Amino acid sequence: MPSSVVYALAANVGKQPDLYRRFVRAVIKADNFIKQSSPQDIAKVIEPEMGGQSLDSLTHAISAYKEIYWRSQGLRIGEEEFNRWKKFAAENQLIPATGKYDYADLVRDVGAF
To answer: Of 58, 60, 1, 65, nearest to 34 (Cα)?
Structure first.
């Protein structure tokens, strides 16, 4: 299952907040495309970048990915998931325990949830 984790230093986000907002929105746009498109339509878009893999092979792999791994809600983070992450991050000292950033802030900052 392809996946990635993207980290950004708070200092860098503070210097270029619009850049990071655009990046997050682009990821959400890609998520929407995957969610709304058929495996064959996705395969047609990515085929030129896939090193000569056949359209049939790509379509088969994307179909399996969408059936097995892709969440029906896509990448959307609900309030419950956000709160679970925030608790984990605070307990592991990844963020300050007294941070005031909440789900409404995430929705406002990303502007796409």
So the answer is: 65
